Each structure stands twice: as C-alpha cells, then as structure tokens.
C-alpha cells in the first residue's frame, strides 16, 4: 500500500522535470515536498483508509490535476504544462484516494512549500525596494574579496553587472521556506529551532555571496563563456550542497552537541590547571 502511494506521488515529478528542464530549482521544491511525504510515512498510514465515495472523488481530482494547465495558461503566460498547480491538485487527490479526509492535514507542509514557491515573485517584488539600496555595499564587498584573491576588478564594473535578480534573494527565500516546513514538523524546543534556523539562513546567505564571487572570478579569470556557465549553474549546485549539508547536520545535532560537550569537558580542566600554574 505505501509503495503504491509513494510511487504514484513520485511519477508526476518526471513530467515536472520536463517542464522545468531549464530551471532545475523549480524541480527542487517538489522533490523536497516528496521527501517530506516520505518522512511522514508513519503518520500517514496510521490514518484510516478512504471510503469508496471519497476514493472515487480523489481519483477525479487526480485526473483533473493533469488538465490544470489549460485552466491556468490563459491567465498566466509563464504557466508550465505540468507545474506546481498540477502537482498540488494531484497530491490532494492522492490523499483523498488513499486516506480518510482528516489525513489532509498531513499534506499541509508539502503544499505550503509549493505555494510559497509560487508566491516567490510577489515576495521578491516586495523585498526589492528594501534590499536594493544595499547593492552598492555588496559590490564593494565583492570587489575587495576579488582583490584578496588577486583579481583586480573595478568597483564600477562590478556594480554595473550586479542586478537585483542576481543577488541571491531567491536562494535565501526558498531555503527559508524549506526551513519553516522542517521546523514546523520538528518537535524540538523553540530555542533549538531558532538556533538552527539562524545557522541555515546564514549558510544560505554565505553561499549566495560565494556564488557572486565565483561568477565575477570566472568572468575576470576565464572569460565570458566560463563566467556565464558559473552564473547559470553555480547557484543550483551550491544550494543543493548546502541543503544536504544542513539537513545532515540538523539530523545529527544531538551527536554534535554531545561531542562539543565532551570537547569542552576535556578542555575545561586543562584551562583551570593552566590558570592555576599562571597564578602560582
């Protein structure tokens, strides 16, 4: 039963891979949604099965989800043949076909993840006038970092090439959305959630800076073609890498904390001894 459910939840991602072939980040979001469904396996299959009438309605929703493009495309020029609207409807239909309607609450996190990504353009337009005044300072920072790396770059050139769409806001926003979903499902204390959320956002900010430095370093050191290739793909690679690293560290946080305590416990007596020797 569970294998069938997850197989059916995974199959539409093949269609999404086709629709978002030129925008791999668009596929990362539904993949995270699928991973969240996997993590919810025990909760999902603790719910009663759907009744016959509800199951039939769920199948109708699933079939309808493949036609969402034809409803949305007249009003949304950038609509994909099989995109987020399709997948959201599909997941709702899948839940209705497999579980009692109360299980829909378990679909909140993955569907929120998709909805937040759909709202990214609106959030970006709201953030633009707030963040844009800091772009000159960012250009200065990048110029200095390039100088440390031995690359002589004119501030005016760096500043003229920096555009709002390239500063990394999208990466930070998407990672923040993923964090909200992860922390909403995590039973840890508020203090733990805030601490690890801060680490996650800081890491996303740092990879956005690394991406920008890598792009300009590529342009100055290897020419336009290499710089453009870094511009197109570095963000995706760094985003996925940091996501994997963060999720691994977060999953091992108790082990990391215990290790840090052991190191501190070993270091503290030595510090006390050294201090005593200095006093003597």
Question: Could you characterize what this model shows?
Answer:
It contains 15 helices and no strands. By secondary structure, the protein is mainly α. It has 2 domains: 118 residues, no CATH class; 160 residues, no CATH class. The longest helix has 33 residues.
Helix and strand arrangement:
Blueprint lengths: L1 H9 L1 H8 L4 H16 L1 H4 L7 H14 L2 H5 L11 H15 L9 H11 L1 H12 L3 H14 L6 H7 L7 H17 L4 H33 L1 H28 L1 H27 L1
Radius of gyration: 24 Å
- Principal-axes geometry comes out as globular
> What is the number of E strands?
0
Mean pLDDT: 81
Tally of helical runs: 15
- Main β sheet profile: none
- Amino-to-carboxy terminus distance: 73 Å
Give the helix proportion (percent range): over 70%
The run of helices and strands is HHHHHHHHHHHHHHH
Quaternary structure:
single chain
Which runs of at least 5 residues are low in confidence (pLDDT < 50)?
Answer: 271-280
Number of domains: 2
Structural class category: mainly alpha
DSSP strand content: under 5%
Features:
280 residues; mainly alpha; 2 domains; 79% helix
Compact overview of the structure:
With 280 residues, the protein is mainly alpha-helical. It contains 15 helices and no strands.
């Amino acid at each position: 039963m569970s294998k069938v459910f997850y197989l059916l939840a995974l199959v539409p991602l093949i269609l999404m891979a086709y629709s978002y072939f030129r925008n791999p980040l668009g596929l990362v979001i539904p993949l995270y949604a699928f991973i969240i469904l996997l993590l919810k396996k025990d909760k999902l299959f603790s719910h009663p099965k759907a009744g016959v009438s509800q199951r039939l309605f769920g199948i109708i929703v699933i079939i309808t989800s493949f036609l969402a493009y034809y409803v949305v495309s007249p009003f949304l020029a950038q609509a994909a043949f099989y995109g987020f609207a399709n997948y959201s409807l599909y997941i709702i239909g899948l839940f209705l076909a497999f579980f009692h309607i109360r299980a829909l609450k378990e679909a909140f996190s993955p569907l929120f993840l998709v909805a937040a990504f759909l709202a990214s353009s609106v959030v970006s337009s709201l953030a633009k006038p707030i963040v844009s005044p800091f772009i000159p300072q960012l250009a200065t920072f990048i110029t200095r970092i390039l100088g440390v790396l031995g690359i002589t770059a004119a501030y005016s050139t760096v500043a003229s090439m920096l555009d709002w769409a390239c500063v990394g806001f999208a990466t930070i926003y998407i990672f923040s959305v993923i964090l909200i979903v992860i922390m909403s499902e995590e039973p840890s204390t508020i203090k733990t959630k805030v601490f690890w959320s801060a680490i996650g956002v800081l890491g996303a900010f740092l990879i956005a800076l690394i991406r920008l430095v890598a792009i300009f370093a590529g342009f100055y050191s290897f020419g336009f073609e290499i710089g453009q290739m870094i511009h197109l793909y570095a963000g995706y690679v760094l985003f996925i890498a940091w996501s994997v690293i963060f999720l691994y560290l977060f999953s091992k946080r108790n082990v990391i904390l215990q290790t840090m305590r052991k190191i501190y416990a070993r270091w503290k007596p030595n510090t006390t001894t050294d201090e005593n020797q200095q006093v003597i």
